[in-house]
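Table S2 (continued). Query chain:
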Amino acid sequence: MKILKTLTTALVGTALAVSLGAAASAATTKLRIQTHFSTETLSGQMAGEFIRDITEMSNGEIEVEMFYSGSVVKAAETFDAAATGILDCDMTGGAYQTGKNPAFQFTGDLNGGYANPYQQMAWLLHGDGYAQLNKLYNQHNMEFVGWWIPGPESLSSTSPIRGVADFKNWKFRSPPGIITLIFKNLGASPIVMDFNEIFTALETGIISGADAANLTNNIGLGLYDIAKHTNYPGFHSMPADHLACRKDIWDAMPAHHKAIMKVGMQALALKNTSINEVKNAQSAKDLRAKGVNLYEWAPEELAKYRDAVQSAWVEFATTPEAKELLNSHVTFLKNLGAMK
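Corresponding output:
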């Protein structure tokens, strides 16, 4: 009996020690992340779902303080804010950083290269995309973690946008990057401005339209309250929003936290693409019912745009990093048979 009691005490003590040791060794990763999306948009809601997912999958070991609508710094400044320690991670998009290196254009949007989000995700997952992207991101003290791609975007305009001819002298909000070059070559007047300045600029007449997001997110931004013309399906742009974290923060994470973050982003990508496909179809019906004009471009007009895009790729890829990334995308597309 005495031996049994001693053995029981020893086992309880060992179990307690193991439990305390496990608790003591449980790592906590604390992250401050900013997105340019507001909580009212579908993408903002999806970002919130991602945060909940990684918190639950890590059993609370990953703690996130999330900032929406560019509330800490402007959208284009989020990357630098993360790289320098004001934030920890950037949940905007790579094209905002083309001023650093034009290669950043090819980290998120090939502007007419990929037909749908699934093709583009295939490059990331099966075309050595992670390694290709981190060659660039690591040079800037950041680690690329993942993409989420809502799908082809739709323009918003206060005047008809039925074809290339309607772009002549069209003054619109443009994100930075290759899209400004493409639209200038088509006769438009792009004005680069922050994501959260679009509504006011449209309302006050500073711009006549915007390259902002897809139908559903444009509705969330209130753009169709002012701009009664749009195009659907979209064709001109299909940006992938990224999650990128400061390199030292990423390197310090335990392996299971890194895996949770990457898998969490892959889950977000699937949910985001599929829900946007459903929502955009519903949004198109709702907009037509409200009197918004939706234009589906004719094949010959799309061909004019795609010609302008492919020449702009080459013109824009002026650095070794840009040429390498562009070549990776083009090679993948040719191997798919999606490009000659």
